[in-house]
Design goal:
The protein is an alpha+beta fold. The protein has helices at about 10-20, 30-50, 90-100, 105-115, 170-185, 200-210, 235-250; strands at about 55-60, 70-75, 80-85, 120-125, 130-145, 150-160, 190-195, 215-220, 230-235. The protein is globular and about 50 Å long. The chain binds coenzyme A.
Length: about 260
């Protein structure tokens, strides 16, 4: 079903193994080259395989002979991603009102935009150029969730939503990956968010695709009395995966640059 040439060791596990060896935390040039080859093999097999359109990605992490575990399946046909612009704001507010009970005043959206537009992202329908999903983020700092004696910079996923008719295509996955990457680029060591304890789809998204763990439960966090889970992930546990995905999104031409 899937071209065997991609079933080689992924650069993520490669890098992880090498990091154990040379503890510098950086990809060696050999693993960088192998990562590139691996990505090329993926794109090549996708474009050649009739079952997949050119901007679908099946990311597998497995060894030859082992069962293929599909990590991300994305179908981003007709979708583009860009950093939040002023012109997207009203639409983001509207999407939020369609998708979530936590709604905010215009001035909250505007201040978020002013302070954090370079780390917040929208997905846009290519045909209409209108936002169909968003991920709004903030920068924060505090004691590490893993080491209470360490003060760290944190990225806070403030709100994320995809319009119902666009769901289960990997749009939130791509938006979160782009958001995590821009927060890492601002020096964040941990990323966290709050989620309703009943929000199974979102919890699954954060845990399965972004290795986020529940680090706390906050009683009656929401206005209707529901508890929140605080979920978080350390940069070193997820960064390799994130950069692989964002590089793929850019290689596919799905991410508009600021000049576009
Ligand atoms: C949660 C939400 C943002 C996901 O958006 P999306 O664009 O559909 O997400 P993706 O397509 O990237 O989903 C990736 C993975 O998340 C999990 N997931 C997403 N929706 C799911 C659902 N309804 N049921 C179970 N798992 C789900 C799955 O693991 C999915 O992978 P799969 O489709 O290969 O099984 C969207 O459902 C939404 O807008 N919900 C309402 C707003 C909300 O709850 N926001 C989060 C607040 S904390």
């Amino acid at each position: 079903m899937f071209d065997e040439s991609v079933l080689i060791e992924s650069p993520v596990s490669l890098a992880r193994r090498e990091r154990v060896k040379n503890s510098s935390g950086l990809l060696s040039s050999t693993s960088r080259i192998r990562a590139t080859v691996w990505l090329l093999k993926i794109s090549d097999s996708i474009t050649r395989h009739p079952q997949y359109k050119s901007n679908e990605l099946l990311y597998t992490e497995s060894n030859p002979g082992a069962n293929v575990s599909v990590k991300w399946r994305l179908n981003l046909t007709g979708v583009k991603f860009r950093r939040l612009t002023y012109w997207d704001l009203a639409r983001v507010k509207w999407i939020n009102e369609q998708c979530l009970p936590e709604n905010y005043l215009w001035r909250t959206w505007f201040s978020l935009y002013r302070a954090y537009k370079d780390i917040s992202w929208v997905a846009v329908d290519e045909k209409s150029d209108l936002a169909i999903a968003y991920c709004m983020n903030k920068l924060d700092e505090g004691w590490s969730f893993w080491d209470r004696s360490r003060w760290v910079k944190k990225g806070h996923v403030f709100s994320v939503a995809t319009l119902p008719q666009w769901r289960r295509r990997g749009i939130a996955t791509a938006l979160l990956a782009l958001s995590f990457e821009s927060m890492f680029d601002k020096g964040c060591q941990e990323i966290f968010l709050e989620v309703r304890v009943s929000n199974t789809p979102a919890i699954r998204l954060y845990s399965s695709r972004f290795k986020m763990q529940v680090v706390m439960r906050v009683p009656r966090y929401y206005h209707d009395g529901e508890d929140a889970y605080v979920m978080a992930v350390r940069r070193e546990d997820v960064e390799d995966d994130i950069r692989l995905l964002t590089r793929w999104l850019r290689d596919q031409g799905l991410v508009e640059s600021a000049e576009d």
